Amino acid sequence: MDQDRHYMQLALGLAEKARGRTSPNPMVGAVLVKDGEVVGQGFHAKAGSAHAEVVALADAGEKARGATAYVTLEPCCHYGRTGPCTEALIKAGVVRVVAAMTDPNPLVAGKGLAILKKAGLEVKCGVLEEEAKRLNEVFIKYITTKRPFVVLKAATSLDGKIATATGESKWITGEAARAYGHRLRDSYDAIMVGVNTILTDDPSLTARLPEGRGKDPIRIILDSYARTPTGAKILLQESAAHTIVATTEAAPVERRASLMAAGAEVLIVPGTGPGVDLNKLMEMLGEKQITSILIEGGGKVNGSALAAGIVDKVAWFIAPKIIGGDAAPGPVRGEGVATLRDATQLYDVEVQRLGEDILLTGYTSKGGGSLSLPV
């Protein structure tokens, strides 16, 4: 690995430390190198906090003068919650900037690199670009479409069942796979399920990581008629994340009022029905700066999400169990497709082993890249 790739790899590792904490901003890492020595490093820890370049410059102090800055994303050049990083780099006396990729944000989009060049800095872009794009797949989708990046998570037996004929589903997968599932919850802004999951299981939908480190996702309930009980765990538990009930005009007004009184945010999603219009819902959630959603629904929600075309990535856990039975439910309901050419095709597929279980991840469009959490 050449020097630029080596230091960019360090910067990518720093950026990864803030996974799930920077929304709606990207994850960014920065490393400052002078005379073959790392003199400063940093990462963007959360939205509103100092950007990675500023943190690294502060870490380096006077040693930043004459250094090369390795940044996983093109330095910003506009005023937001913080000042432009291009200005900070120039003022600090950095002489060379190596960026992994240009910023897809229209406010930047090459302008940052152009400003640095104009100021006399040497600029290089595209080092470990694919890795940087995979790191920030959520940000790229959101900033270019204003819609959240959607991951469909499912856990099935070897023969494609999500429960037995009697409804027993705990637990199909083992401890390692379930722990990974909580890490997924910790990584995304929101988790989405259907009201039947609430009525049947009364789940908490929290991220339970060791030592209480998990960040709870916003809970989104698809509930056309506002049937969510006001005594459900998702409304009563202590959590920094709130609950959104996505419903329709068909929901009784008194039920909507009861849910709001219980602390839920009720979204009336326009549409002709039946059910909640998922594409319209994605637009509404994007307007709320919800950049990513993990679907943990049953077969009906999964089928609706795939049919609506809102799924970007699939995380499919497969347990080495055979359940059998015509009445045992599967993970995708609805009409399905008539021909194999209409089936949802996954690309850039990766396979991991988690204990005795298998995790298969893939993207629903070409060029989606591949990304998995470290085991």
TrEMBL record:
<feature type="binding site">
    <location>
        <position position="224"/>
    </location>
    <ligand>
        <name>NADP(+)</name>
    </ligand>
</feature>
<feature type="binding site">
    <location>
        <position position="197"/>
    </location>
    <ligand>
        <name>NADP(+)</name>
    </ligand>
</feature>
<feature type="domain" description="CMP/dCMP-type deaminase">
    <location>
        <begin position="2"/>
        <end position="124"/>
    </location>
</feature>
<feature type="binding site">
    <location>
        <position position="169"/>
    </location>
    <ligand>
        <name>NADP(+)</name>
    </ligand>
</feature>
<dbReference type="InterPro" id="IPR002125">
    <property type="entry name" value="CMP_dCMP_dom"/>
</dbReference>
<feature type="binding site">
    <location>
        <position position="296"/>
    </location>
    <ligand>
        <name>substrate</name>
    </ligand>
</feature>
<dbReference type="Pfam" id="PF00383">
    <property type="entry name" value="dCMP_cyt_deam_1"/>
</dbReference>
<dbReference type="InterPro" id="IPR024072">
    <property type="entry name" value="DHFR-like_dom_sf"/>
</dbReference>
<dbReference type="InterPro" id="IPR016193">
    <property type="entry name" value="Cytidine_deaminase-like"/>
</dbReference>
<feature type="binding site">
    <location>
        <position position="155"/>
    </location>
    <ligand>
        <name>NADP(+)</name>
    </ligand>
</feature>
<keyword id="KW-0862">Zinc</keyword>
<feature type="binding site">
    <location>
        <position position="205"/>
    </location>
    <ligand>
        <name>substrate</name>
    </ligand>
</feature>
<comment type="similarity">
    <text>In the N-terminal section; belongs to the cytidine and deoxycytidylate deaminase family.</text>
</comment>
<keyword id="KW-0378">Hydrolase</keyword>
<dbReference type="Pfam" id="PF01872">
    <property type="entry name" value="RibD_C"/>
</dbReference>
<keyword id="KW-0521">NADP</keyword>
<dbReference type="GO" id="GO:0050661">
    <property type="term" value="F:NADP binding"/>
</dbReference>
<feature type="binding site">
    <location>
        <position position="51"/>
    </location>
    <ligand>
        <name>Zn(2+)</name>
    </ligand>
</feature>
<dbReference type="InterPro" id="IPR050765">
    <property type="entry name" value="Riboflavin_Biosynth_HTPR"/>
</dbReference>
<dbReference type="InterPro" id="IPR011549">
    <property type="entry name" value="RibD_C"/>
</dbReference>
<feature type="binding site">
    <location>
        <position position="208"/>
    </location>
    <ligand>
        <name>substrate</name>
    </ligand>
</feature>
<comment type="pathway">
    <text>Cofactor biosynthesis; riboflavin biosynthesis; 5-amino-6-(D-ribitylamino)uracil from GTP: step 2/4.</text>
</comment>
<feature type="binding site">
    <location>
        <position position="201"/>
    </location>
    <ligand>
        <name>NADP(+)</name>
    </ligand>
</feature>
<feature type="binding site">
    <location>
        <position position="76"/>
    </location>
    <ligand>
        <name>Zn(2+)</name>
    </ligand>
</feature>
<dbReference type="GO" id="GO:0008835">
    <property type="term" value="F:diaminohydroxyphosphoribosylaminopyrimidine deaminase activity"/>
</dbReference>
<feature type="binding site">
    <location>
        <position position="185"/>
    </location>
    <ligand>
        <name>substrate</name>
    </ligand>
</feature>
<dbReference type="InterPro" id="IPR002734">
    <property type="entry name" value="RibDG_C"/>
</dbReference>
<comment type="similarity">
    <text>In the C-terminal section; belongs to the HTP reductase family.</text>
</comment>
<keyword id="KW-0686">Riboflavin biosynthesis</keyword>
<feature type="active site" description="Proton donor">
    <location>
        <position position="53"/>
    </location>
</feature>
<comment type="function">
    <text>Converts 2,5-diamino-6-(ribosylamino)-4(3h)-pyrimidinone 5'-phosphate into 5-amino-6-(ribosylamino)-2,4(1h,3h)-pyrimidinedione 5'-phosphate.</text>
</comment>
<keyword id="KW-0560">Oxidoreductase</keyword>
<dbReference type="GO" id="GO:0008270">
    <property type="term" value="F:zinc ion binding"/>
</dbReference>
<dbReference type="InterPro" id="IPR004794">
    <property type="entry name" value="Eubact_RibD"/>
</dbReference>
<feature type="binding site">
    <location>
        <begin position="298"/>
        <end position="304"/>
    </location>
    <ligand>
        <name>NADP(+)</name>
    </ligand>
</feature>
<comment type="pathway">
    <text>Cofactor biosynthesis; riboflavin biosynthesis; 5-amino-6-(D-ribitylamino)uracil from GTP: step 3/4.</text>
</comment>
<feature type="binding site">
    <location>
        <position position="171"/>
    </location>
    <ligand>
        <name>NADP(+)</name>
    </ligand>
</feature>
<dbReference type="GO" id="GO:0009231">
    <property type="term" value="P:riboflavin biosynthetic process"/>
</dbReference>
<dbReference type="InterPro" id="IPR016192">
    <property type="entry name" value="APOBEC/CMP_deaminase_Zn-bd"/>
</dbReference>
<dbReference type="GO" id="GO:0008703">
    <property type="term" value="F:5-amino-6-(5-phosphoribosylamino)uracil reductase activity"/>
</dbReference>
<protein>
    <recommendedName>
        <fullName>Riboflavin biosynthesis protein RibD</fullName>
        <ecNumber>3.5.4.26</ecNumber>
        <ecNumber>1.1.1.193</ecNumber>
    </recommendedName>
</protein>
<keyword id="KW-0511">Multifunctional enzyme</keyword>
